[in-house]
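Structure (tokenized):
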């Protein structure tokens, strides 16, 4: 427990991915002269491979706390990847967010890591990542896929919500003066309702930039062509506010401008409910609220075509807000279909708290 937690004040300082994953890798995909590089995080050494795909604007680090929770319950391996344009991934066409391109990315990364015969895979996706998981599975891009888990991705409610996404993006801060401030904002605004998760995952959402003009941090927001990224994993939390030292100031900005992906939003979700239902795999749908269910999924659920669980009240960042509850549901799914075995130490008890 940190000093600030002892004093009763929340600790908003960032936490390393190393607390949750075993390793981080940059995976090269494509021809040698024009390779795309995808950032991945791994954990575990045996059991089925859970391929974790994050939501729009997030990164693989949004699965950090969930990874610890699921690994304590069942034997499994985890591979969480930063999608193109997100996190630490660097691709040539970073603005191509089509479902075809993004699902191909997933298949290419897995093949690069495991060859043509990967271990049994369970595709698990949240939001946009859930739609990508559905497209990857329905197009049979990874033949060893044995299960599919979609988290808070429902075509009907997603299509209805598209018009408010731009308003949300316009309403959030354009920059932060420190990583701590970004973490504090994410929790207090309700974007991430779990402080532990926010402390590790916000590092994947924003990056430190150097302001090279004589501008204050507050004025730095509209400056786009004079900002360069620093690649430190951890950032010096102090910065200078004096105008005379303005050249050395830093500001933290979003790694991806989600508003530029708007032309793909419709394609991400349209038709996903029927694609999900048509996938001839064991399936699990996790929702943050029953009101998210659309007509096709309601009928499919009544026909027993997939497992479904509505989680306790939480926001859209389901696996971050309630990582233990999501891990419990995924573990039950894996055990029911005999994809994995329960960890010995948890067979007698299902209660796990980090």
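Design, position by position:
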């Amino acid at each position: 427990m940190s000093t600030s937690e002892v004093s009763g004040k929340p600790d908003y300082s960032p936490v390393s991915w190393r607390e949750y994953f075993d390793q981080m890798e940059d995976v090269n995909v494509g021809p040698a002269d024009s390779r795309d590089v995808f950032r991945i995080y791994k954990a575990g050494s045996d059991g089925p491979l859970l391929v974790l795909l994050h939501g729009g604007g997030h990164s693989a680090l949004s699965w950090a706390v969930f990874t610890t929770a699921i690994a304590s319950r069942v034997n499994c391996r985890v591979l969480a990847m930063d999608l193109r344009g997100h996190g630490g991934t660097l691709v040539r066409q970073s603005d191509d967010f089509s479902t075809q391109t993004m699902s191909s990315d997933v298949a290419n990364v897995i093949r690069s890591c495991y060859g043509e015969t990967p271990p049994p895979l369970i595709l698990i996706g949240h939001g946009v990542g859930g739609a990508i998981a559905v497209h990857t599975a329905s197009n049979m891009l990874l033949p060893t896929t044995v299960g599919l888990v979609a988290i808070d991705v429902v075509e009907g409610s997603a299509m209805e919500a598209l018009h408010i996404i731009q308003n949300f993006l316009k309403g959030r801060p354009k920059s932060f003066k420190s990583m701590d401030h970004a973490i504090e904002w994410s929790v207090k605004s309700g974007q991430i309702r779990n402080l532990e998760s926010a402390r590790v995952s916000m590092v994947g959402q924003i990056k430190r930039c150097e302001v090279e003009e004589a501008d204050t941090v507050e004025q730095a927001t509209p400056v786009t062509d004079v900002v360069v990224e620093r690649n430190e994993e951890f950032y010096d939390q102090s910065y200078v506010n004096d105008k005379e030292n303005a050249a050395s100031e830093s500001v933290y900005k979003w790694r991806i401008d989600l508003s530029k992906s708007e032309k793909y939003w419709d394609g991400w979700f349209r038709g996903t409910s029927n694609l999900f239902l048509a996938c001839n795999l064991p399936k699990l749908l996790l929702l943050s609220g029953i009101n998210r269910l659309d007509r096709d999924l309601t009928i499919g659920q009544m026909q027993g075509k997939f497992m479904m669980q509505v989680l306790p009240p939480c926001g859209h960042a389901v696996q971050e807000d309630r990582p233990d509850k999501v891990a419990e549901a995924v573990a039950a799914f894996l055990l029911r279909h005999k994809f994995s075995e329960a960890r010995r130490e948890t067979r007698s008890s299902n209660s796990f708290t980090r």
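Reviewer-requested clarification: Residues 1-5, 212-248, 348-354 have pLDDT under 50 and may be disordered. The radius of gyration is 20 Å.
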